[in-house]
Design the sequence.
């Protein structure tokens, strides 16, 4: 046991003495989170829009006033004539137009159905989507209010339904992604690099020759990064809640438990990489190409999985981060419980065990 | 029983383009309290042999035993009785001298205090810098620290793979003095080196090239076996002299050897006077018949092989 | 040995490099003449590597002057680099390229024309007897052959001076001597050779040697003169005598 203790101490020396790397390890999550939360935002504020109300009834007035009171939109009241639409779009005066057809209230109350037309300037497709989503969600809110008052279900048809993130805050979608990426990066990449480093400097030969059990080497390498990962998780959650104002709707305990599981999964991946790579460079390349790229591209963090070709959707299933991001979204944003993320937890557990078994099989007592 | 017995060890590395025979039927024995030198250039198979002896690499065929323990079957026992310093071993650069030593003591289930006697001679020289990071030590100091680390668990056998490579001559001399003291304490040492002049510091040596042992013997015996005449020749123009000597009809080989050239000729074939005549156009010519060095012998063996 | 003309190609005056309060190189001064083989000796940590880095223009000195092939190492580093060749023990060649590819690459980065590269590379392959294996990967060559090729490439662009940092470390004794044959040949073609080594017999092959101790040059002369001066039989003994005085025990 004394051996293990000293070995772990030595690993902490390595990490604590490399101040620059330590700063990156601890600072990276903060920077990433704040960047995604604030700077790289898909939010649009004070977009100029125009509203053509052909119905001019009670309901449309209510909706318009809701839109008007929203900080995202500025209604341009100088444009009255619907035939001007194309012209003002061309001039770039407005980003979006909302058109209420005749008899809106009538349709809604008597046919239980009404339609709003939203026209957006799609030269900037991201912004156009965001804006139409804003309108849709405002209308949706209003509809829910209406339905609470009346007994019949009234349906205003909008193309977008934005659940869970009504203000479409950028941070909400990026926090789970940042967590999935940072934990994998630190746990898997750093662990594999630090094990492979011993091979490179020739110290691994001595460790093998020593009476120390090989799994001591692995455990000692893993523990410091486990600790750093936990610090990072705490930082990310604290920042998300107190700086970005994100809620944790579900159980914090469940979130912590599944995060620990994900860290274990990433650490076992790191060990697996270290059994394959012989140089630090190789470990880094395997980590980046084999882990980082899939997390960014295939985990659903940057691009929606549903929009991918079938083959990529299939591949995305073997990316652990995908399942972890689902868990975080479910627990943090949707407030779901254990039974709802049971499948994801089982998948991550199986993956972890699998990685560990392969690593143990591959870990050699010789060179 | 010999301390180390090696029988017909064979090891090949197979790469995509070719097969490299790292060790080709290597056999020898090492006795207790002996300094056994493996002398050969880089790539001659020395490191492979060390790895097999230290049980971290498996031979393709053949057998090696250390104190009657088999390197393949009894690797756990062997790992307890050997101290191994790998060729590219570089310590933990970011740990201090003391931390490095402490670490290696701990993983070998001992402590600095317990075996201080063993390493005190060496460690005293580096102890003033015990708080310095290993990465900031000079080459000679690093080697002394590495040796201390290999010795800390009181091994019976030391396997040192090129401990003096890249180390300056002064530190090298000090290092060999240390090895001699260890030998007197009953430790058996197998050491490799690319420096031929270090061969004379070993009790017995094996000359190795391309995975083959060229000769195994006492250094003195190896030079005695040299069956040719060898002359040490100097003049004012050494470069011209070398070219002239190579043109001489009976020259077997001629190489620069520090401040003189060594000319190898068939035994008793040429009289000194004939040489002097051939080189009469050189100023300050000096020709001496000398005894060969290990390097002369090694070079002759290399040439015979080609 | 080779007659040296009186053209000074390296002139170093009071060159100093400090790292914080540690003086790695302390006011060294020397001159090297054209076609000379200058041996630059010193124990590990004596400051050799730092001095060489300054001379080849990759490390800025703290004070002092140095002129390499007529160019100032402070202001004309680009010209310095064009006129020197450098070969270190660590980096020499691209292992995953063939011999021909390495030759073409090094010819290319020194700006030789395609014709020049073609002619010179044929000449080189013939000289080293590499014609039949020119398409082999460098990684498949024995160390000694690699070192010979590395040296040939370091002087491929016909530099005025070539700096060799422990070029023969770990090489077998015959190849080591063949390597020195190449060095002699280069100096015959007017190239100046600045070389460091841990083999003391190789120090004897130099026209002049300097021995550095604790950042300063403690001895500088031809091997014969040094042996006379110190009344010792070999450079090895002189080196031992001087280096033992080192107070820089780190």
Sequence:
């Amino acid at each position: 046991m004394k051996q293990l203790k000293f070995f772990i101490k030595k690993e902490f020396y390595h990490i604590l003495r490399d101040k620059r790397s330590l700063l990156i390890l601890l600072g990276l999550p903060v920077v990433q989170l704040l960047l995604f939360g604030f700077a790289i935002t898909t939010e649009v504020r004070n977009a100029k829009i125009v509203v053509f109300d052909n119905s001019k009834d009670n309901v449309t007035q209510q909706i318009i006033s809701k839109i008007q009171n929203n900080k995202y939109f500025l209604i341009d009241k100088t444009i009255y004539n619907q035939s001007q639409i194309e012209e003002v779009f061309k001039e770039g005066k407005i980003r979006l137009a909302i058109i209420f057809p005749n008899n809106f209230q009538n349709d809604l109350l008597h046919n239980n159905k009404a339609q709003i037309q939203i026209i957006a300037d799609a030269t900037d497709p991201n912004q156009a989507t965001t804006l139409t989503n804003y309108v849709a969600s405002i209308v949706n809110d209003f509809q829910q209010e209406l339905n609470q008052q009346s007994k019949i279900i009234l349906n205003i048809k909008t193309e977008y339904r934005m659940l869970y993130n009504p203000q479409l805050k950028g941070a909400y979608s990026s926090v789970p992604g940042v967590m999935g990426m940072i934990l994998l990066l630190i746990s898997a990449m750093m662990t594999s690099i630090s094990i492979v480093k011993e091979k490179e400097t020739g110290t691994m030969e001595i460790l093998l020759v020593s009476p120390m059990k090989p799994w001591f080497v692995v455990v000692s390498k893993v523990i410091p990064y486990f600790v750093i990962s936990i610090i990072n998780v705490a930082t990310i959650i604290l920042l998300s809640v107190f700086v970005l104002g994100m809620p944790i709707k579900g159980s914090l305990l469940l979130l912590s438990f599944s995060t620990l599981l994900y860290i274990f999964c990433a650490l076992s991946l790191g060990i697996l990489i270290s059994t394959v790579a012989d140089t630090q460079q190789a470990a880094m390349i395997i980590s980046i190409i084999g882990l980082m790229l899939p997390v960014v591209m295939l985990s659903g963090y940057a691009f929606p999985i549903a929009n991918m070709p079938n083959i990529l959707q299939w591949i995305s299933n073997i990316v652990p981060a995908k399942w972890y991001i689902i868990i975080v979204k479910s627990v943090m944003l949707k407030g779901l419980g254990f039974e709802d993320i049971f499948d994801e937890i089982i998948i991550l557990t199986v993956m972890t065990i699998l990685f560990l078994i392969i690593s143990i099989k591959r870990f050699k007592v010789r060179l | 029983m010999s301390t180390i017995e090696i029988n017909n060890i064979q090891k090949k590395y197979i790469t995509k383009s070719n097969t490299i025979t790292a060790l080709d039927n290597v056999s020898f024995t090492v006795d207790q309290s002996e300094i056994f030198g493996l002398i050969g250039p880089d790539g001659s198979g020395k490191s492979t042999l060390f790895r097999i002896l230290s049980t971290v690499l498996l031979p393709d065929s053949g057998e090696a035993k250390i104190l009657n323990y088999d390197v393949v079957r009894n690797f756990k026992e062997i790992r307890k009785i050997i101290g191994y310093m790998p060729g590219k071993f570089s310590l933990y650069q970011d740990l201090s001298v003391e931390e490095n030593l402490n670490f290696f003591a701990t993983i070998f289930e001992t402590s600095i205090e317990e075996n201080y006697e063993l390493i005190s001679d060496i460690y005293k020289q580096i102890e003033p810098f015990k708080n310095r990071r290993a990465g900031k030590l000079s080459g000679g100091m690093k080697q002394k620290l590495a040796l201390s680390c290999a010795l800390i668990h009181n091994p019976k056998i030391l396997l040192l793979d090129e401990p003096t490579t890249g180390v300056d001559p002064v530190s090298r001399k000090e290092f060999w003095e240390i090895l001699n003291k260890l030998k007197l304490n009953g430790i058996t040492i197998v050491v490799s080196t690319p420096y031929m002049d270090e061969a004379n510091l070993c009790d017995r040596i094996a000359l190795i090239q391309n995975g083959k042992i060229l000769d195994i013997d006492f250094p003195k015996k190896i030079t005695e076996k040299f069956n040719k005449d060898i002359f040490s020749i100097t003049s004012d123009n050494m470069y011209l002299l070398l070219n002239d000597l190579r043109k001489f009809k009976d020259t077997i080989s001629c190489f620069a050897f520090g401040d003189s050239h060594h000319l190898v000729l068939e035994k008793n074939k040429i009289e000194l006077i004939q040489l002097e005549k051939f080189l009469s156009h050189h100023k300050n010519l000096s020709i001496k018949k000398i005894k060969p060095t290990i390097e002369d012998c090694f070079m002759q063996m290399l040439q015979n092989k080609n | 040995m080779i007659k040296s003309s009186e053209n000074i190609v390296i002139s170093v005056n009071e060159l100093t490099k400090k790292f914080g309060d540690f003086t790695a190189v302390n006011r060294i001064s020397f001159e090297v003449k054209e076609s000379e083989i200058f041996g630059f000796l010193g124990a590990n940590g004596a400051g050799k590597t730092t001095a060489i880095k300054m001379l080849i223009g990759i490390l800025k000195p703290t004070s002092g002057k140095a002129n390499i092939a007529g160019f100032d190492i402070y202001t004309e580093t680009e010209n310095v680099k064009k006129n020197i060749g450098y070969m270190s023990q660590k980096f020499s060649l691209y292992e995953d390229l063939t011999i021909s590819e390495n030759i073409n690459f090094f010819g290319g980065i020194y700006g030789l024309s395609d014709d020049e590269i073609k002619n010179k590379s044929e000449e080189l392959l013939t000289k080293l007897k590499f014609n039949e294996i020119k398409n082999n990967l460098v990684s498949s060559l024995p160390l000694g052959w690699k070192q010979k090729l590395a040296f040939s490439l370091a002087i491929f662009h016909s530099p005025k001076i070539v700096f060799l940092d422990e070029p023969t470390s770990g090489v077998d004794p015959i190849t080591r001597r063949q390597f020195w044959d190449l060095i002699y040949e280069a100096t015959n073609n007017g190239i100046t050779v600045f070389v460091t080594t841990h083999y003391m017999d190789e120090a004897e092959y130099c026209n002049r040697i300097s021995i550095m101790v604790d950042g300063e040059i403690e001895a500088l002369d031809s091997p014969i003169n040094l042996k006379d001066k110190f009344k010792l039989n070999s450079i090895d003994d002189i080196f031992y005598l001087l280096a033992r005085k080192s107070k820089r025990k780190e």
Remarks:
- Chain B touches chain C through 41 residues (CB under 8 Å).
- Residues 4-223 of chain B form a domain with the Rossmann fold fold (CATH 3.40.50.300).
